[in-house]
Design goal:
- This protein is an alpha/beta fold.
- It has helices at residues 57-68, 92-98, 108-121; strands spanning 13-18, 21-26, 29-34, 36-40, 43-47, 76-80, 102-106, 125-129.
- The protein has a single domain, classed as MTH938-like (Hypothetical Protein Mth938, Chain: A, 3-Layer(aba) Sandwich).
- Strand 2 (21-26) and strand 3 (29-34) form a beta hairpin.
Length: 133
């Protein structure tokens, strides 16, 4: 799906998503990231899990460690669950709560739109999104 370009106050904006990846509008041009994406501050990066099942409790702390490292710097994690709304992985909400990080959970298409809106407000948050295939 194509999204309308806007200014993200220094953050890269998602210009399109689908077919298993995301496209970001950067000052240096568009960049496509295949698979899941993690956005910490101003840098989108490829992220390991591809489906919710990859986030089993044994892998939870590994995949979310970069977010936990931002304790005290971010207000919340915006988590895109893929094409459908599904519950968060077991233990994620408790892990984030202990660190004082909120959780906003929604299907990835809604998370993309929400991210672009929040990025233009200059909010302090992290993003983890599973792809829409």
């Amino acid at each position: 799906m194509q999204l309308v370009p806007a200014t993200g106050k220094g953050r890269p904006l998602i210009t399109a998503y689908g077919a298993g990846g995301f496209r970001f509008g950067l000052e240096t041009g568009d960049v496509r990231i295949e698979g899941s994406v993690l956005i910490l501050a101003d840098a989108p990066a490829s992220w390991g899990p591809l489906v919710m099942a990859d986030l089993a409790s044994s892998a939870l702390s590994t995949y979310f460690a970069p977010i936990m490292d931002l304790k005290g710097e971010i207000e919340f994690l915006l988590f895109g669950t893929g094409g459908d709304m599904v519950p968060p992985p077991t233990g994620l909400r408790d892990m984030l709560n202990r660190a004082g990080i909120g959780l906003e959970l929604m299907p990835t298409p809604a998370a993309c739109r929400t991210y672009n809106h929040l990025a233009t407000e200059g909010r302090h948050f992290a993003v983890a999104m599973l792809p829409v295939t």
